[in-house]
């Protein structure tokens, strides 16, 4: 399947699990220490590698940051020289890397070229809007996707299955910016008899006061960008869940469960779904890791002040410290979530331990 | 009865539908522009800009520097009609016979928004800080490079002593800050962003009273402004990152002014009675730069520019092959003027236009004759070779971020091929293009600069001193022009304090550039803007009659904007009723669908 946007990861092929085992409830047990140590160690090594490579990764970007920042405004050669010195760009590359490595290993992400303020502070300011939007969308799309996926698999081949899968795939293939703009035209501006229900963009209305009013205002601004994101990403949960549940469908333990006289709903909920959950959990954790990197397209269309648009702005300069900082945070989140997923697998499915 | 899963689901569906309806209702009630007859009158401006810093010492982007013009008074301002210097902080000024000492008389009775008086000492302190601290010079350092000293002998007098005469002294775009507030920040001026305490203490027509990073900037009218209080109580800049979303906000009334629009957006807004459009002359020129041979300040040649372009006659021949009228019609959709002089026609006093004999009027035959005469002969395939028999191919560069470049490149390469000059086109990232230009490794490249009321800076880019220090080093400009006559005129204009005489020199400089065919201005694009005429009654353009509302070099548009007298058309009630009915219908339908589905599923279970 091809997608028209770089915003979404490809749907991973679900791992095929041996369909043995009964419909046991999840049971927690101690994890093997070696397993945990190996996973944590691996994650730490990855993170340090990311921190050190970030420098070279963005150094190869073309363009002179000083020139880009000052382009079009009357500037004296002295100002340019001072900026170059301030950014450390007048030093040889090896010295620049030395400074960077010392700083980054001390946890200092540096000062942004264009904003002249600490990168950590900038990322902090933009982190909450991104988690608020993309986090909500991830939770909603996972909930919706799982539900639709389970229903579709359970009644596979039915009209409902075909419609649900078809709709999910169609929305997955729609360009995000186009869908977002469509939502703005229909639900924000209003068209024909439909009134403009939601704001066209931003995260809040200037001058809103009072806790309830601010809360409602924030939620109103969230609806359209969140809807857009959910619409384009829930398909991956549908497809993953549907495929892995279909794998379980013919299993003997389900026949046994039914023979015991269990209701169909209970067979599905307590026996089939837990066994089919693992691939979807992987997708979910990958996506939670990607929550912080935001969604450039949706953030742009809805003027959302998140990390995605901050990254885009940093790229155009190029604002090297900001790019490096964002890269480390984005990668760090994915590494952390993968680690959590690795640690969670044996809890969810004891077969992974062996 | 125990709560079964289906009841929970029904409850969830109803809750979600109700929540959607509840969230939608407040919007419906205010779907039309807020009724401005009661309560504070607010003017909301959609901006695609963003703020790098609110400190006037650090800000470099357009939005914050424009905001600073609204909240801080400068020494002088630009007249809304024709951009000549008019009094602001200074009411009058005089110069010494040697042109080196400027004495400004400072306006009486002005106050900062915290009630303290505005004095010459505030101005002297601001300028001195920029002169002494490289960090404070980040934003406006270029204005004070030539200052020897700035002093305030008394609260009403400011004396600036220069190293060399400088004709740009009435165009010092430096926001003046209150010394008593900023003194404590002088030590960490490179880190202080003026965004910790609101309202910001200032003295302009507006006071910056609220700021949400990445979202909006709120300005409140200054009731004590010496020129008079603005008519709108608040001006809010809201950020829109997507221009189509920005237009939707205008249609809805969430924003009352949008700029810049694309020609398609501008045309589409034409049939809306509640929206007024403005096609303004722009401040930007769009040019095709020809590499005359890259050299450093000391004359050392570098780069691999085509030797053919070092000949001004060859460069001129190329210009006859290009039809800028077609580019205006096709690329700009007619919204612009064909180019000639370096400074756009918006600067009526300084704009220069060639006469018919001198103009490069589209004439491929003439281009062909000139190339023939230079020895670039056409081969059997219709393409020319250099006088020493090598194939003649020029590399044309443009940047992907500028939409005009791609379209113009295809026209220009076709026209040049038409006269036998081969062209290879490369479109690349703006950073990469800047690297290519800095290295001198190009033949032709698209180039665009925004200009200011005072032309000194953009003119300085084309002087011999505007070239890099060493081969491949970054430099201010992006062409390698070095023309002795031009430099001589440049040196004269900067010391000429008589505006009419200076304009004459500036025009002669443009003529010299034009004759050399170094930076060939193809067109000046219009700035297209639109506003809600049911909210804004009137406001001043700058300059008049063909200027723009935003961004102006003064504060005239928002300062002079009057609220519309007719109340905006209200669609709130009908909207609310429609929304209510629609929501009820959705909830009802969802409920019915749910009930029937559950009944069917229940029947399945029983079987």
TrEMBL record, chain A:
<feature type="transmembrane region" description="Helical">
    <location>
        <begin position="35"/>
        <end position="58"/>
    </location>
</feature>
<feature type="domain" description="ABC transmembrane type-1">
    <location>
        <begin position="127"/>
        <end position="345"/>
    </location>
</feature>
<comment type="similarity">
    <text>Belongs to the binding-protein-dependent transport system permease family.</text>
</comment>
<protein>
    <submittedName>
        <fullName>ABC transporter permease</fullName>
    </submittedName>
</protein>
<dbReference type="Pfam" id="PF00528">
    <property type="entry name" value="BPD_transp_1"/>
</dbReference>
<keyword id="KW-1003">Cell membrane</keyword>
<feature type="transmembrane region" description="Helical">
    <location>
        <begin position="167"/>
        <end position="198"/>
    </location>
</feature>
<feature type="transmembrane region" description="Helical">
    <location>
        <begin position="127"/>
        <end position="146"/>
    </location>
</feature>
<feature type="transmembrane region" description="Helical">
    <location>
        <begin position="218"/>
        <end position="239"/>
    </location>
</feature>
<keyword id="KW-0813">Transport</keyword>
<dbReference type="GO" id="GO:0055085">
    <property type="term" value="P:transmembrane transport"/>
</dbReference>
<dbReference type="InterPro" id="IPR045621">
    <property type="entry name" value="BPD_transp_1_N"/>
</dbReference>
<feature type="region of interest" description="Disordered">
    <location>
        <begin position="1"/>
        <end position="23"/>
    </location>
</feature>
<dbReference type="Pfam" id="PF19300">
    <property type="entry name" value="BPD_transp_1_N"/>
</dbReference>
<feature type="transmembrane region" description="Helical">
    <location>
        <begin position="322"/>
        <end position="345"/>
    </location>
</feature>
<dbReference type="GO" id="GO:0005886">
    <property type="term" value="C:plasma membrane"/>
</dbReference>
<dbReference type="InterPro" id="IPR000515">
    <property type="entry name" value="MetI-like"/>
</dbReference>
<dbReference type="InterPro" id="IPR035906">
    <property type="entry name" value="MetI-like_sf"/>
</dbReference>
<keyword id="KW-0472">Membrane</keyword>
<keyword id="KW-1133">Transmembrane helix</keyword>
<feature type="transmembrane region" description="Helical">
    <location>
        <begin position="276"/>
        <end position="302"/>
    </location>
</feature>
<keyword id="KW-0812">Transmembrane</keyword>
UniProtKB/TrEMBL annotation, chain B:
<dbReference type="InterPro" id="IPR000914">
    <property type="entry name" value="SBP_5_dom"/>
</dbReference>
<keyword id="KW-0813">Transport</keyword>
<feature type="signal peptide">
    <location>
        <begin position="1"/>
        <end position="31"/>
    </location>
</feature>
<dbReference type="Pfam" id="PF00496">
    <property type="entry name" value="SBP_bac_5"/>
</dbReference>
<dbReference type="GO" id="GO:0043190">
    <property type="term" value="C:ATP-binding cassette (ABC) transporter complex"/>
</dbReference>
<dbReference type="InterPro" id="IPR039424">
    <property type="entry name" value="SBP_5"/>
</dbReference>
<protein>
    <submittedName>
        <fullName>ABC transporter substrate-binding protein</fullName>
    </submittedName>
</protein>
<comment type="similarity">
    <text>Belongs to the bacterial solute-binding protein 5 family.</text>
</comment>
<feature type="transmembrane region" description="Helical">
    <location>
        <begin position="576"/>
        <end position="596"/>
    </location>
</feature>
<keyword id="KW-0732">Signal</keyword>
<keyword id="KW-0812">Transmembrane</keyword>
<dbReference type="InterPro" id="IPR023765">
    <property type="entry name" value="SBP_5_CS"/>
</dbReference>
<dbReference type="GO" id="GO:0015833">
    <property type="term" value="P:peptide transport"/>
</dbReference>
<feature type="domain" description="Solute-binding protein family 5">
    <location>
        <begin position="86"/>
        <end position="461"/>
    </location>
</feature>
<dbReference type="GO" id="GO:1904680">
    <property type="term" value="F:peptide transmembrane transporter activity"/>
</dbReference>
<dbReference type="GO" id="GO:0042597">
    <property type="term" value="C:periplasmic space"/>
</dbReference>
<keyword id="KW-1133">Transmembrane helix</keyword>
<keyword id="KW-0472">Membrane</keyword>
<dbReference type="InterPro" id="IPR030678">
    <property type="entry name" value="Peptide/Ni-bd"/>
</dbReference>
């Amino acid at each position: 399947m091809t997608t028209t946007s770089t915003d979404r990861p490809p749907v991973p092929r679900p791992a095929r699990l041996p369909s043995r085992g009964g419909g046991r409830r999840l049971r927690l047990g101690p994890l093997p220490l070696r397993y945990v140590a190996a996973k944590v160690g691996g994650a730490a090594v990855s993170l340090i590698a990311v921190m050190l490579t970030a420098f070279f990764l963005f150094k190869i970007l073309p363009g002179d940051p000083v020139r880009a920042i000052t382009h079009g405004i009357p500037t004296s050669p002295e100002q340019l020289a001072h900026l170059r010195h301030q950014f450390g760009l007048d030093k040889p590359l090896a010295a620049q890397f030395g400074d960077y490595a010392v700083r980054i290993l001390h946890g200092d992400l540096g000062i942004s070229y264009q904003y002249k303020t600490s990168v950590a502070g900038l990322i902090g300011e933009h982190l909450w809007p991104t988690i608020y939007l993309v986090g909500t969308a991830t939770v909603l799309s996972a909930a919706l996707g799982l539900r639709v996926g389970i229903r579709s698999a359970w009644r596979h081949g039915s009209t409902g299955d075909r419609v649900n899968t078809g709709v999910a795939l169609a929305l997955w293939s729609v360009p995000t910016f186009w869908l977002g703009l469509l939502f703005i035209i229909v639900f924000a501006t209003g068209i024909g008899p439909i009134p403009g229900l939601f704001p066209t963009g931003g995260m809040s209305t200037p001058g809103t006061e009072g806790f309830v009013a601010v809360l409602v205002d924030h939620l109103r601004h969230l609806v359209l960008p969140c809807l857009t994101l959910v619409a384009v990403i829930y398909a991956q949960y549908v497809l993953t869940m549907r495929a892995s549940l279909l794998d379980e469908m013919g299993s003997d333990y389900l026949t046994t469960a039914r023979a015991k006289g269990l209701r169909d709903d209970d067979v599905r909920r307590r026996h089939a779904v837990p066994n089919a959950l693992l691939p979807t959990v992987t997708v979910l954790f990958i996506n939670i890791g990607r929550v912080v990197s935001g969604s450039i397209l949706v953030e742009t269309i809805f003027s959302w002040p998140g990390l995605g648009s901050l990254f885009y702005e940093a790229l155009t300069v190029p604002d090297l410290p900001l790019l490096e900082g964002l890269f480390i945070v984005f990668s760090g989140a994915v590494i952390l979530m993968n680690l959590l997923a690795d640690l969670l697998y044996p809890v969810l499915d004891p077969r992974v331990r062996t | 009865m125990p709560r079964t899963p289906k009841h929970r689901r029904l409850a969830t569906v109803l809750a979600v539908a109700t929540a959607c309806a509840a969230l939608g209702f407040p919007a419906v009630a205010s779907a039309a522009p807020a009724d401005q007859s009661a309560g504070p009158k607010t003017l909301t401006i959609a901006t695609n800009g963003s703020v790098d810093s609110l400190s006037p010492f650090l800000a470099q982007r357009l939005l914050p520097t424009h905001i600073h013009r609204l909240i801080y008074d400068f020494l002088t301002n630009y007249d809304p009609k024709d951009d000549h210097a008019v009094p602001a902080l200074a009411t009058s000024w005089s110069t010494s016979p040697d042109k080196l000492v400027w004495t400004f008389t400072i306006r009486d009775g002005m106050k900062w928004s915290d009630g303290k008086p505005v004095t010459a000492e505030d101005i002297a302190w601001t300028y001195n800080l920029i002169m002494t601290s490289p960090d404070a010079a980040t934003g406006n350092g270029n204005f004070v490079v030539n200052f020897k000293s700035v002093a305030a002998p008394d609260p009403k007098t400011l004396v600036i002593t220069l190293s060399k005469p400088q004709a740009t002294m009435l165009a010092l775009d430096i926001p003046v800050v209150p010394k008593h507030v900023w003194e404590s920040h002088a030590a960490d001026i490179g880190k202080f962003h003026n965004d910790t305490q609101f309202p910001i203490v200032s003295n302009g027509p507006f006071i910056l009273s609220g700021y949400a990073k990445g979202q909006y900037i709120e300005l409140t009218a200054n009731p004590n402004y010496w020129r008079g209080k603005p008519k709108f109580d608040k001006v809010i800049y809201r950020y829109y990152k997507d221009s189509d979303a920005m237009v939707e906000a205008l249609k809805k009334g969430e924003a009352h002014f949008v700029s810049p629009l694309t020609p398609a957006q501008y045309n589409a807004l034409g049939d809306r009675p509640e929206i007024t459009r403005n096609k303004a002359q722009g401040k930007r020129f769009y040019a095709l730069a020809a590499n005359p041979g890259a050299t450093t300040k000391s004359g050392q040649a570098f780069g691999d520019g085509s030797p053919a372009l070092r000949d001004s006659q060859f460069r001129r021949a190329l210009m006859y092959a290009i039809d800028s009228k077609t580019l205006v019609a096709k690329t700009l959709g007619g919204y612009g003027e064909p180019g000639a002089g370096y400074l756009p026609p918006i600067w009526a006093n300084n704009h220069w236009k060639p006469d018919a004999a001198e103009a490069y009027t589209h004439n491929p035959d003439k281009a062909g004759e000139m190339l023939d005469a230079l020895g670039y002969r056409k081969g059997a395939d219709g393409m020319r070779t250099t006088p020493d028999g090598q194939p003649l191919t020029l590399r044309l560069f443009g940047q992907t971020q500028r939409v005009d470049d791609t379209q113009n490149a295809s026209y220009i390469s076709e026209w040049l091929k038409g006269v036998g000059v081969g062209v290879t086109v490369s479109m690349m990232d703006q950073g990469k293009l800047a690297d290519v230009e800095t290295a001198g490794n190009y033949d032709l490249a698209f180039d665009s600069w925004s200009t200011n009321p005072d032309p000194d800076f953009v003119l300085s880019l084309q002087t011999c001193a505007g070239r890099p220090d060493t081969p491949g080093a970054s430099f201010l400009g992006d062409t390698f022009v070095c023309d002795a006559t031009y430099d001589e005129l440049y040196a004269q204009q900067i010391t000429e304090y008589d505006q009419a005489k200076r304009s004459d020199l500036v025009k002669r400089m443009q003529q010299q550039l034009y004759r050399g065919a170094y930076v060939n201005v193809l067109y000046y694009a219009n700035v297209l803007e639109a506003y809600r005429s049911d909210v804004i009654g009137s406001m001043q353009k700058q300059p008049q009659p063909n200027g723009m509302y935003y961004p102006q070099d003064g504060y005239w548009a928002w300062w002079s904007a009057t609220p519309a007298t007719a109340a905006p058309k209200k669609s709130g009630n009908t909207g609310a009723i429609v929304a209510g009915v629609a929501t009820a219908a959705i909830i009802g339908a969802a409920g019915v669908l749910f009930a029937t589905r559950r009944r069917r599923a229940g029947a399945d279970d029983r079987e």
